[in-house]
Amino acid sequence: MAAALRGSGLQVLAAVLVSLAASTAVAQEPHARADSVADGVGASYWGEIPPASDSTTARFRDPLMPVWEGILVVPFRFFTYPVKLLGDAGLAAVQWVDEARILNIFFRPPGKMQLMPAINAGGLSGFGGGLTLQLNDVGWPGVQMRLRGYATVNGDQRITFGARAPTGRRSRIVLGMGFRDRANARYFGIGPNSSVFDESFYRQKLTWAGLSYHRDLGSGFTLRGKLLYSRVAAGPPGGDFEPSIPQQFPGSVPPGFGESSDGLSLELLLGQSDGLPTGRPTRGGLRQLRASYMIATDQGDADLWTFRAELQQFIPLWYEYHTLALRGYVSWIQRSGEGEMPFQRLLTNDDPDLLRGFNDFRWRDRGLAVLSAEYRWPLWVFQRADGPGLDMYVLADVGQVFDSFNKISFDNLTLSYGLGIRLVSGPGLVLRLEWARSNEGAVFRLKSEQIFQWTKGLFHGKDPIPPR
After folding, report:
1. pLDDT tens readout for residues 129-155
2. Is residue 398 classed exposed, middle or buried when 0-12, 13-18 and 19+ CB atoms within 10 A define those classes?
3. Range of the structural domain that residue 401 is part of
């Protein structure tokens, strides 16, 4: 590598102009000292040409490419040219979307009424989507209502309604109800040793209605109490999904299949947050402790305790908006009544508690422990560094299900890893596109909700069964 460019840019520019002037002077003045000008010194129209030195000489940083390097570079550029074309096409598409102001659909400020699209592809639900209608300041300031409808090609349908109103400067009440029908819920057995070859299907129907009270305690702490009625029914799958659970497990059909589990739950949650933005947090975190008790109102008499601890932290790395996002949680269900625990009440890897390299509902048991990590960085932003745009990230999930804490071990842990892209607007996440892989294959997901900062409850129509 040759030496770096020396001297100031103004001196180099002056030297070039002086050389050009000297050439002009030779052409116009026959009596000039042509031999001196040719050597780069002597008189010129602009003055004396200085002799060559470090301050007046510019040398290229990189030498010419040697032959052996050209032999390697030419094939490399040939095979990577389609990738370059794809990148140029993607950039052109983003610029067109920007100029067409399509981004304003997502980036507009909230008003009295908001209509928000939802998109889903991949995973258990398959391709589909829906709409959410939110009304703000209904009747008096601070009162909101939210109606959401959703359907996919794989028979996943749901409709939810939520409302919330302030009851003081630091408290509010929230009402929520919903119904969800999944025609192709999966069952592989129970425990970390269940086999992927034992895949079977059943139909899951969730119905719930609840009321919660939220109290801000200051310093980011929140206390929430919730009363919830829920019903979870499990029966034969819909459509052409087979085999069903009785066909795959003829001698060991799990408790609860062909029945519904009904119960009334009382939940208490203590949380603390650093006031994180929902779109692109770069530091801070949130912590939650939760306990709930469900009294069975059906004939099964399976009363259940559920406990959960969760920690999330966002750590800035190296450059601004380059962030390491960490999320760890442990959930546990303990039977209290005399009846058997219905399998549809057990914990499983479903939104937001995903193991992203595995299909939804792949693992199921009384306990679930997971650590998720994402390294995020900006890929493209709109107008300003912290504005709407695209973030890219690499991801990893490590975790397992268990029926007792002494079963948590390296032998039972699962590993997922992959890549993702997040479309972020001013109010928060708009879409996430993920590809994740495990030892059982790869899973692609396109969703309009995230697994981090999953603090929204009844108002947003999130499935509260099992408690998450």
Report:
1. 889 888 988 878 889 999 999 899 888
2. middle
3. 112-460
